[in-house]
Specification:
Length: 295
């Protein structure tokens, strides 16, 4: 595969990831119904891609569990607050990652990381204080923001888990296996609360199918393929278009306005993450690339 094709695949993955906010807000489905169907479809596709060759280990199962919590919390928070708040608050995961990595992975904390932590903290505060009034597409912003913050912590734990299971394996299928297991766990956990399924329009059913097939499964297929030929820094920077596009699609498709404070806070979080990626260009691929992916 050429570098040019790899770049196109990363951009395709970022665009697919970014459509999650608008798709999750399909009105006919509850958050748990979306989670059960979306993750279930993705799990089937990813396990089929891996030809069922999953060799679960305790670290991989643990990573799958926290990833399952992450994708579930992301869906629930997106249903309750604006897509912008959900994605920007989840993007604060590197803050917790930097604090936990020295303890769990014995990876070094550098003095310059303090400036990054401060920048992310400022963006986080702006996103929280700028929460909008309840609307049809964001009926409970306060609860949604709390779930998004918890999601950022479980996402940080997921990144630590992926880093842990991948750092001793050259095959990207190890991380993909953890993602497949996580989606399977998320779907199984949500199904008891998803019944009965709603009477939805064909367009909304197609939206749910799209979330599982394209927004998760196909996006991860593109991303893992591109990671074989592109430097980690370039991948991480290309993926930063995802949190920019996510609230944009939701605004265009669902008419959802995130508010000025949220936009400014999100811009700060994305900006400091981009700057940190440039400074951390020498960090191993797994540690940089995973930080900027979403669910």
């Amino acid at each position: 595969m050429s570098i040019g094709v790899g770049r196109l695949q990363v951009l395709a993955a970022a665009v697919l990831f970014s459509t999650g906010g608008a798709g999750i807000k399909a009105a006919a489905f509850t958050g748990l119904q979306v989670s059960a169907l979306r993750s279930g479809i993705a799990a089937v596709i990813l396990i089929a891609l891996l030809r069922g060759k999953l060799v679960p280990s305790p670290p991989m199962i643990a990573t799958g569990v926290v990833y399952a919590a992450t994708v579930t919390l992301f869906v629930l928070s997106t249903k309750l607050t604006t897509a912008a708040n959900a994605i920007f608050l989840q993007a604060t995961a590197p803050l917790y990652l930097l604090l936990l990595a020295p303890v769990i992975l014995s990876e070094r904390f550098r003095a310059r990381d303090v400036a990054f932590l401060i920048g992310v903290a400022v963006g986080l505060v702006l996103c929280v204080i700028g929460q909008p009034l309840p609307t049809t597409t964001a009926p409970d912003p306060t609860t949604g923001n709390v779930l998004a913050l918890v999601c950022s912590i479980t996402w940080a734990l997921t990144l630590l888990g992926l880093r842990y299971v991948q750092r001793d394996h050259a095959l990207t299928s190890v991380g993909l296996s953890a993602v497949a297991l996580g989606n399977l766990f998320a779907s199984l956990a949500a199904w008891p609360f998803a019944w009965p399924l709603p009477s939805a329009s064909p367009i909304e059913w197609a939206t749910i199918a799209y979330l599982g097939v394209c927004q998760i499964a196909l996006a991860y297929i593109f991303l893992t393929a591109a990671m074989r030929v592109l430097p980690a820094l370039e991948v991480s920077l290309l993926l930063l278009i995802e949190p920019v596009l996510n609230p944009t699609w939701t605004w265009l498709i669902r008419g959802e306005h995130p508010g000025v404070y949220t936009i400014v806070g999100g811009a700060i979080i994305i900006g400091v993450t981009a700057i940190k990626s440039v400074f951390d260009a020498r960090v191993p691929a797994g540690a940089v690339v995973e930080i900027t992916k979403t669910v």
